[in-house]
Specification:
InterPro entries: Ap4A_hydrolase, Calcineurin-like_PHP_lpxH, Metallo-depent_PP-like, Pesterase_MJ0912. This protein starts with a strand and ends with a helix. Helix content is about 35%, strand content about 20%. By secondary structure, it is an alpha/beta fold. The radius of gyration is 17 Å and the shape is globular. A 6-stranded mixed beta sheet has the order 3-2-1-11-12-9. A 6-stranded mixed beta sheet has the order 4-5-6-10-7-8, with helices on one face. α3 packs across α4, α3 packs across α5 and α7 packs antiparallel against α8. It contains 8 helices and 12 strands. It has one domain: Purple Acid Phosphatase, chain A, domain 2.
């Protein structure tokens, strides 16, 4: 079975449409959505509808910290321009859409995989996986062969051997990475709507559980239009500049 992995759409309709079209052309059996569907971008209502439609079709979806913050209020550390963006977003999503975001779980299992937005060891605390140490904590917190997380906005891949030795790979877009069954893995596909590795192209990944392979993808999209929509909406210009530079 082949899974498409989308994370951190962040209300970016242009990026989401481009990645969705690319994934359909590549072919997959089931979609996995790793959270943060709203905030930063100009189309929160549209992206929630997109997620709702995919879930109705059988997609796996978990809740992200920005989804949570739109419903319950800003978390610790969310201030300044992020608070402005959250307030703007909250005024443009319906009560039904908020209820949908609130209903999403923090983690979800499928096959021998686990999906979480931030991490698997303390998903409600929204801590980042900055490196091997945090990746190991998440892998030790579950028996899943493969853990998928978002939150970092940069494509990353970590592994843990049977002897407890951790390592990481630098993923190359479009190149399938074999995932040895002798190791356990934690993959971060990167952000669809807010890449932050210096490349403005949208990120996602494809996992083939029959071939035991993972392919990271980059999809150029009209980030100029997405940025212009942010400015026209009156959102902080910093959020438009990020799309130009992928930072």
């Amino acid at each position: 079975m082949k899974f498409a992995l989308f994370s951190d759409l962040h209300a970016n309709r242009q990026a989401t449409e481009a990645v969705w079209e690319h994934a359909q052309a590549e072919g997959f059996d089931r979609l996995v959505l790793l959270g943060d569907y709203v905030d930063y971008g100009a189309d929160p209502g549209w992206t929630i509808e997109f997620v709702q439609q995919r879930v109705a079709e059988g997609a796996v979806a978990v809740r992200g910290n920005h989804d949570d913050a739109v419903v319950v209020g800003a978390h610790e550390g969310m201030h300044g321009q992020v608070q402005l963006s959250l307030n703007w977003t909250r005024q443009r999503v319906s009560a039904e859409q908020c209820a949908f975001l609130s209903s999403l779980p923090l983690m979800a299992s499928f096959g021998d995989c686990l999906a979480a937005h931030a991490n698997a060891h303390a998903p409600a605390e929204w801590g980042y996986i900055h490196g091997r140490m945090e990746a190991m904590r998440s892998l030790y917190a579950t028996e899943a062969h493969l853990v998928f997380c978002g939150h970092m906005h940069e494509p990353r891949l970590y592994h843990l051997s049977g002897t407890g030795k951790a390592g990481e790979f630098e993923p190359v877009p479009g190149v399938a990475i074999p995932l040895s069954r002798a190791r356990r893995w934690l993959a971060i596909p990167g952000s669809v709507g807010q890449p932050r590795d210096g490349n403005p192209a949208a990120c996602y990944a494809l996992y083939d559980d029959e071939q035991d392979s993972l392919t990271f993808q980059r999809v150029p999209y009209d980030h100029e239009e997405a940025a212009q929509r942010i400015i026209q909406a009156g959102l902080p210009e910093m959020m438009a500049h990020r799309l130009h530079h992928g930072r």
